[in-house]
Amino acid sequence: RDASMSDHARVHALVRARMSAMISPTSFRSSVTRARYSHLSLQHTEFPSVDGAGATCFDLDRVERRYLLCGTVDGGVHVYDTESTSMASDGDDAVRTQALVCAIPGGGARATQSRAASPSTSSVFISDVTAHAYAISCAKWLPSDTGMFFTCGFDAAVKCWDANSLLEASALELEAKCHALALSSISTSHALVAIGTDDAVVRLWDPGANVIAHTLSGHRGSVRAIDWALSSEYQLATGGAEGDVRVWDIRRAGAFMILDRHNTQQTAHVEGIKDAMYAGSSGTTVGAGPKPASRKMADSIPDHLRSDAARRCSSSSYSGRGHARSGVKRTRDGGWGGWGV
C-alpha cells in the first residue's frame, strides 16, 4: 500500500511539473509510461516440451489463430493449443502451461536421448513415424486449413503432413539443406510451395503431383528467407546469404527486381525501357514494365526514351459504330492513338 501511495504521489508530481511547464510533453509521457510498465504483473506462461529439445521455428495457424506449430532441433514437430491451458508445478510455484495437442518425434540421436529423459505424455497424441533426421529449419501451416502443414529441415527433406493422422501426405528429397519454405495465402490458380535451399536455387514444389514445377536461379549464396507477395499470387521475394533480396515472377525465369539498400534515390526502373526505344517503328503496343510506384518516379523517365507505344495516356474515349468499337487515346506529347476493341 505504501508503494502504491508513493507511485500516485510521483505521478501527481509529474502532472504538476507538466502543468507548470517544467518538463516537456515527451518527458512527461516517457516518465508516466515507465512508471506504469514497472508495475505490470506478468503471467508465467510456458510451453512445455515433450522431449526437452530446443525450438527452431514457430507458425500460428491463420484460420483459427489458435494452434502453434513448433519445429525442434532434434527434427521433431509439436502442435500446441494456445487457448487451452493447464496448471503445472515448477518447484514451489504454479506455472500455467499451454496444452500440447500432438507431436511427431525426431529421428536424430539427440531425440533418442531426450525422449529417454522426458516425462510421460500418455494424454498426447504422438505419431509412430519420425519427422526429420536433423533440425527442422522451417514449419508452416497450410494458409487455408489447419488439416495440413509443411516442414523442411537440414536433412534435405521437405514433407507435407496430414494434421489429423500425423502421417506424411507427400515428401520430397533434395540434395541440399533446406532453410525456408513458403505458401501463398492468396493463390487460386496454383498450390506451389517455394523452397529455399543451400545450393542457391529456389524450387517451386507441387505437393499434389510431388514434382518440382519450376526452379529460380540467380542467388550467389544459400537462400535463407522466402515469402510470397500479398498483392500477386505469382510474385515471390527471396533473400540470400550473399545479401541480395530478389523479387520474382514465377512465370518467368529471372528476377525482375533486386533490392539495393545502398541506393536511396527514387529513380524509375522501367523493365521494358530498351524495347520501348525501338517500338515506334513496329506499330505494336509494347508494355513498359511494372506500374511506377509514384508520379514522381514515372516523370523521371527522360522524354527521349519514350516511344509512341510507351507514352502515358492523358485521356481516352470510346465511340460505337454498330457492333464494333474503337478507342481513341491522347498521349502526353499531344499525339493521338486509336485501337480497335
TrEMBL record:
One GO BP annotation here? protein polyubiquitination
- Which domain of life does this protein belong to? Eukaryota
Organism annotation: Ostreococcus mediterraneus
InterPro entries, per this entry? Rad28/ERCC8/Ckn1/ATCSA-1, WD40/YVTN_repeat-like_dom_sf, WD40_repeat_dom_sf, WD40_rpt
UniProt region (Disordered), positions on chain:
308-341
UniProt feature, compositional bias: Low complexity: 312-321
| WD repeat coordinates | 216-258
Q: What PROSITE patterns does the record tag this protein with?
A: WD_REPEATS_2, WD_REPEATS_REGION
Entries under PANTHER family matching the protein: DNA EXCISION REPAIR PROTEIN ERCC-8
Quote the SMART domains the UniProt record gives: WD40
**Protein name in the entry:** Peroxin-7
GO cellular component terms? Cul4A-RING E3 ubiquitin ligase complex; nucleotide-excision repair complex
Coiled coil start-end: none
